[in-house]
Design brief:
It is built from eight helices and three strands; from the N terminus they run βββαααααααα. The protein has about 180 residues and is an alpha+beta fold. The protein folds into two domains: about 10-65, no CATH class; about 70-175. A three-stranded antiparallel beta sheet has the order 1-2-3, covered by helices on one side. A hairpin with a 5-residue loop joins strand 2 (about 25-35) and strand 3 (about 45). Helix 2 (about 70-80) packs antiparallel against helix 8 (about 160-175) and helix 5 packs across helix 6 (about 125-135). The longest helix has 19 residues, at about 45-65. It binds zinc ion. Zinc ion binds near residues 4, 6, 7, 37 and 39. Zinc ion binds near residues 7, 37, 39, 40 and 42.
Length: about 180
């Protein structure tokens, strides 16, 4: 619970409002949190609310920029069978990169975004990056076997994994409206 810094009251209520933000000529509707002290009427935005608001703005901008949102990054990573730490080893960006992306604390670069999408589409590229990072994923989690199965065949044989990809694409299509 946040105290009012002015009157020290603990009677602080949380609200949120949709605010319109203009970004690259697009109008974004973003939910913004704020607090109001019931005792003295002071309106303020707490530190945690600032972080939450920033994360929502960042995610809304990503949609305009055509980048995977924080939730889509998480879904992509999980569908590739990687922990956050492994994902940072495979894709780069520093040790805590993926926990920051998934909390919308920072946005991934356009090149990072492309690399993740490439790996979702092309298992041979993903396999190469895994090998380079020295990561061994248990065989049953892999969606292909030594690259000897044709793309079409292993796609059919691993529908679960590839369905995940189409989910991400359909979210994106909706976002573009
Ligand atoms: Zn107050």
């Amino acid at each position: 619970m946040t105290n009012c810094k002015l009157c020290k009251s603990e009677q602080v209520n949380q609200f949120s409002e949709l605010e319109t933000i203009i970004y690259k000529e697009s109008e974004l509707s973003v939910e913004m949190e704020y607090s109001v002290c019931e005792n003295c009427g002071r309106e303020f935005v707490s530190k945690q609310q600032i972080l939450n608001n920033d994360a929502r703005i960042r995610d809304a901008k990503k949609v305009v920029d055509g980048l995977l949102t924080s939730t889509e990054i998480l879904e992509a990573r999980e569908s590739l069978g990687l922990t956050q730490e492994q994902a940072s080893l495979v894709f780069g960006g520093g040790r805590n990169a993926f926990s920051k992306y998934e909390r919308a604390e920072v946005s991934q670069s356009a090149s990072m975004d492309k690399l993740i999408r490439m790996c979702l589409k092309h298992s041979n590229i993903f396999h190469e990056l895994l090998t380079e990072a020295g990561i061994k994923i248990p065989q049953e989690q892999l969606c292909y076997e030594h690259n000897v199965v044709s793309y079409k065949l292993h796609k059919a044989a691993n529908q679960g994994r590839f369905n995940q990809v189409s989910t991400i694409e359909s979210i994106e299509e909706r976002a573009y409206g």
